[in-house]
Amino acid sequence: MKNSNNKKRKTYLNAIMWILLFTVPPPIIGYLFKGPQIFSSFSYYFTYTSIGYAYGLGFGLGNSLIGIYTKKLDWAKNPQRANLINFFIYISYGIFVSIMIPYTIDRFLWGMTGKEVFYDVWAKAFFTLVADLIIFYLYYSTFIANNWMKSIAKNEELKRENLLAKYEALKNQVNPHFLFNNLNTLSGMVEQKHELATAFIKKLSDIYRYVLDQNDKELVSIKDEMKFVDDYIFLTKMRFGEGLLFNSYITDNLNLQVVPLGIQMLVENAIKHNIISDELPLKIEMKIENDFVIVTNNLQTKKTINSDKAPLGLENLKHRYAYVSGTSVEVIESNGQFIVKLPIIKP
Q1: 169 lies in a domain?
Q2: pLDDT value at position 341?
C-alpha cells in the first residue's frame, strides 16, 4: 500500500512539473522578446509566446523519447559506447531544434524574410543552445549515474542467475538418478555384451569429463556440444531402444557457439516429459536455420501433477542466454510438435 501511494505521489509530482515547464517559460520568453506588449491582446500573446510553447514541446517531448531509447543501451558492459551514443543524440537533437523552431516561427508565423531571418535564427539558436547545454549538463550527469547504476545492478542480477543456471545444469547431469540409471543399464550388458559395455563406459566417462570441463565456460562450439549430445543419446538409447528416434542435420561449424549443455538439456527435457515406448516412439530432430539451433520433438506428454508447468531447463536456458548475449530463447508448441530455438552466437 505504501509503495502504491509513493508511485501515485511521484506520478502527480511529475505531472505538475511538466505542466509548469510547459506553461511558465513561454510567457517569460515572449516577454523577453516583446516586453509587456505581449499582454495587449490574445492574438498578440499567442503569436509571441508560440516560440516558447514550441521550445517546451520540442525539447520536452523529444528529450523524453530520446531518454526512453538511451535507457536500453548497454551501460554496464559497454559504458563508453553508450555514453558516446547518448551524448551525440542529445546534442544533435538540441542543435536541430534550436535552429528549426525559430526559423519556422520567424518565417511562417512572424513573416520575417531575408537576412532578418538569418540573423534572428542564429541569435536565438545560440542562446537556446547555451541554455540547453546548461540544462543538459545538469540532467545528463544525473541521467548517466542512474542508468549506469541500474545497468550494473541488472548485470549483477543476470550474473547471479547465470551462475545459478550453470550450477543447476551441472547438478542435473551429475545427479544420482542419471548415474544410477546408467549403471543399471551397464550392469545388464556387462556379462553378455562386453564390447558394447566397454563403449558404454567410454561414453559415460566422456560425458562427465565434458560436464566438468564446461563448468567455468560461458560458450562452447557447436561441434563440441554436438559430440556431447551424441554421447548422451548413445547412453539413453541403451535404455529406450527403438522408442527413441534421433536425427541431427547439424554439421560441424567451429565458428558458431552456444551455451554449454544447452542443446543436451533440450533433449533431456524431451525425454523426461514425454512417453517413450516402441509403440509410441519419441522423435527428436535438430537443425540450424536462420541463426538458430532448432530442436523439435513430437508431443506425447506424460500426465503428472506438474505436467502443465514449463520445464525448469527452459527457464535455465533463458537466464543463461539473457546474461551471455541478451538474446531470447524461442519456444513454440504447435500441431503436436514442441519446438525450441536456441540463438547461435558468433564469435
Answers
A1: no
A2: 93
Q: What is the CATH number of the domain that holds 339?
A: 3.30.565
Residue 45 has pLDDT above 80, yes or no: no
| Bridge partner residues of 332 (DSSP) | 339
What is the CA angle 325-328-334, rounded to 5?
155
Between CA 88 and CA 96, with CA 93 as vertex, the angle to 5 degrees is: 125
User: Does residue 285 carry a pLDDT above 90?
Assistant: yes
Beta strands in 166-304 (DSSP E): 220-221, 244-248, 257-258, 282-289, 292-298
pTM, to two decimals:
0.53
CA 158 to chain centre: 11
- Residue 286 counted as domain residue: yes
Residues 136 and 227 in one domain: no
Domain coverage including residue 259: 175-343
Say if CB 307 and CB 301 are below 8 A apart.
yes
Total domains present in the chain: 2
Q: What is the pLDDT of residues 95-137, one digit of tens each?
A: 898 888 888 888 877 778 888 888 888 888 888 778 777 776 6
Residues 183, 148 share a domain? no
CB atoms within 10 A of CB 344: 19
